[in-house]
Task: structure prediction
Amino acid sequence: MTEQTESQRDGVWAHPYQLASGQTQKHQLGHTQLWVTLLDLEWQVRVQNTALGVDPEDWFETTGHTLPSADLAVQRFVRSNDNGVVRFNPAMAGLPTVIRPFQPLTIPAGARCVLYVGTALWMKVCVGDPETELVELPLAPPSMTWLGRNTREGELCYASSTFGRLALEAVPKRPWRAVTPVTIINGREKSLLLERFSLPTPLLSLHRNERGQLWTPGVTVECETDMNSASLHIDSSVLAEAGPCQLITPAREKLARGRRLIRTFDHMFG
Result:
């Protein structure tokens, strides 16, 4: 049996991995392969994206003394009192993410629905304690899209590669994705055709449950009856169905407690 097979195990978010000088740790997660090497005076990070044809389900980590192909670009970082400890912290995207329901969905006047969304995460490679961030990388190559009524009014967003679904059990559970319940309330006097909407990923924190799954607090979007706008509210806690959770990564941006974010209808649903 090879050394690589003997040392292969499941990866863990925010876990303090201890490396010795000369060791390389490889992580295969989402559509990314990552190699982190510890040397006497530096850290080295190498990244390679994999094909998008299959949605990977697992996170494999191996530790040994084998480097990847010399053709891969290497990023080098000077060491400073890190004791050889490295952590891999999850983060939500730094831009809003456009989500589509599995099929276009009509919400009648006065009705509401809950969509469960799985969004791809970013990974922060951090060393030492207190932590120093070396690099941040997406776990699926991000694609960009524009959400708005025209090319001048709107905002630049990431486009999600997964669909929002009405049934929680239909959402694929992946260690490189986070689940967000989105409640959409149609308070207007006519039906709302939901084809896509903007999820405020920079405002969402990440929480890990006892099964190692990552969740964010719920988001409520309410379309008002008397104005062409939507108000957005972020819950203070994670959905009960997630089970007991602990905060693992705070939101990139903060919204004052109890505040609602008012966004134009075109920028929210596009």
